[in-house]
Specification:
Order of helices and strands: HHHHHHHH
Distance between the termini: 31 Å
Number of strands: 0
Radius of gyration: 18 Å
Structural class: mainly alpha
Oligomer: single chain
Number of helices: 8
Strand content: under 5%
Length: 187
């Protein structure tokens, strides 16, 4: 079964909103624990609905558990703050690494939604890799130069809207490079 789009959005945003609220009420260590629990719950719900775990939530959840665990164990908030940097840098590296080895891994993420010509997939891979690199740098700048509360607000109210806006900005490009599927082609 496929997760309905609004429910998927709620699953994606839920742990972040829990993290934000818990930080506002109880500060970073309680927020980190709540974030870890919320990620496990979201992954479990996703598995129950779709009978599989997609790679992105799995990688994100693993990083949240590892870096959240280090944050709580060592009582050092730096670990949870650096987690997004590592995640976004990893995404950029995987996309670029796949492209250098001749595999356009972004097709696996978006191939069900649309079909592009080879040039389109390549350019979209570069765009997303660059965007993830920019997010990694932005996270580093914010967590190193601002308060924890500011970083949490940026993580929740800055990063997610940036991802949404970047995705929306790719629509004209995708439409320009989209190819018709076999179902719509004349026989």
């Amino acid at each position: 079964m496929k997760t309905p789009p609004f429910f998927k959005l709620a699953l994606d945003l839920g742990p972040l909103l829990i993290f934000f609220v818990a930080n506002a009420l109880f500060k970073i260590y309680v927020a980190t624990g709540a974030f870890m629990v919320a990620m496990v719950v979201v992954i479990a719900i996703g598995f129950v609905i779709e009978r599989k775990i997609s790679p992105v939530p799995l990688i994100t959840g693993a990083l949240v558990l590892v870096f959240g665990g280090l944050t709580l164990w060592l009582q050092n908030e730096m670990f949870i703050k650096v987690k997004p940097t590592i995640l976004y840098a990893l995404f950029a590296a995987v996309l670029l690494g796949g492209m250098t080895s001749g595999r356009l891994l972004i097709k696996y993420a978006f191939g069900q939604a649309f079909q592009l010509n080879e040039r389109g997939w390549r350019a979209l891979t570069w765009r997303w890799a660059a965007f993830f690199a920019v997010l990694a740098v932005a996270n580093e700048i914010v967590w190193r130069n601002f308060t924890t509360d500011t970083w949490v607000a940026f993580k929740v109210w800055g990063i997610f809207p940036l991802i949404f806006l970047f995705s929306a900005a790719q629509i004209p490009f995708v439409m320009k490079h989209q190819i018709e599927s076999d179902e719509t082609s004349p026989r």
